[in-house]
């Protein structure tokens, strides 16, 4: 019995959200796909997928099983790719998507060492705060700052993403420093594309309503308004680390933060036949940032 093959079929069905689409990817008929999924469920003694005439969805057991299957298959593909690409050389155009501010601050300044080490690679870096369709838009990989626990793509964690409440000393001197999470309701809060902040605190998760005189879709506008003393903002330390270290910004309610599952990830479609240029860049960023990235040094997080 091809146990690993059944796992691969299951993973393709979940990713494609269709047995027919998975069959086309694997060059198998829908009947064969259905039979192998049924065989897998019978062997496990549990239903993995809920089937209707219009869609497939994971059961609770199926979701947990899928997360573990993806990890197993990724490890196998990684081992095979490591052997296959060991003698390969990074070459060609590397198309990368990244958030605008993060790409400007923490990717662009570090491209020269990577390109010097890989002279046959050309980087096409596209900056956008939208989540692009990596496969559909022809990207080799994307750098994303999010909670990707449920992503169907391969996601490698590059660095933590600490987000802190902060304001200028001038704003706090004029308006007072909040002593409790409830005090935020009496302050000007600045955010982009959000009407609530979901924070973790000493008493557990809390939701804070954001109501202020500024609405924007730009993270950089929020940053500039924050530095101008307009109010309190929730910012990533990779964005405001220098200002926190210099005293231009001060932390507010430091016992509250965003959940630790939000992190900086490199996201790509699959480890199968992973090109050396992608592997080289992902490894480079992972080593550059690490578990304690340079932007968090000296912040006492």
Automatic annotation (TrEMBL):
One of its GO terms (molecular function) is DNA-binding transcription factor activity. Transmembrane segments: none annotated. Residues 1-59 form the HTH lysR-type domain. Keywords: DNA-binding, Transcription, Transcription regulation. The keyword Membrane does not apply. Pfam families: HTH_1, LysR_substrate. The keyword Transcription applies. CDD domains: PBP2_CrgA_like. Belongs to the LysR transcriptional regulatory family. This is LysR family transcriptional regulator. It comes from Bosea psychrotolerans.
């Amino acid at each position: 019995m091809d146990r690993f093959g059944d796992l691969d079929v299951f993973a393709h069905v979940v990713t494609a959200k269709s047995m027919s689409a998975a069959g086309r990817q694997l060059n198998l008929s829908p009947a064969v796909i259905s039979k192998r999924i049924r065989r897998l469920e019978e062997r496990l003694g549990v239903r993995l997928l809920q089937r209707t005439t219009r869609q497939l969805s994971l059961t609770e057991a199926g979701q947990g099983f899928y997360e573990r299957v993806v990890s197993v298959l990724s490890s196998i593909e990684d081992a095979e790719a490591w052997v296959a690409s060991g003698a390969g050389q990074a070459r060609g155009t590397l198309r990368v998507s990244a958030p605008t501010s993060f790409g400007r601050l923490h990717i662009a300044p570090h491209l020269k060492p990577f390109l010097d080490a890989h002279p046959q690679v050309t980087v096409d870096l596209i900056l956008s705060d939208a989540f692009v369709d990596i496969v559909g838009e022809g990207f080799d990989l994307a750098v994303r700052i999010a909670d990707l626990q449920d992503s169907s793509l391969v996601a490698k964690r590059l660095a933590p993403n600490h987000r802190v409440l902060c304001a200028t000393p001038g704003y706090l001197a004029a308006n007072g420093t909040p002593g409790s999470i409830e005090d935020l309701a009496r302050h000007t809060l600045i955010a982009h594309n959000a009407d609530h902040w979901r924070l973790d605190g000493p008493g557990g998760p809390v939701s804070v309503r954001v109501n202020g005189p500024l609405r924007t879709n730009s993270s950089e506008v929020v940053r500039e308004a924050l530095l101008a003393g307009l109010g309190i903002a929730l910012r990533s330390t990779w964005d405001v680390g220098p200002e926190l270290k210099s005293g231009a910004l001060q932390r507010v309610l430091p016992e509250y933060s965003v959940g630790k599952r939000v992190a900086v990830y490199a996201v790509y479609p699959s480890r199968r036949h992973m090109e050396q240029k992608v592997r080289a860049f992902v490894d480079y960023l992972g080593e550059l940032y690490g578990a304690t990235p340079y932007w968090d040094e000296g912040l006492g997080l």
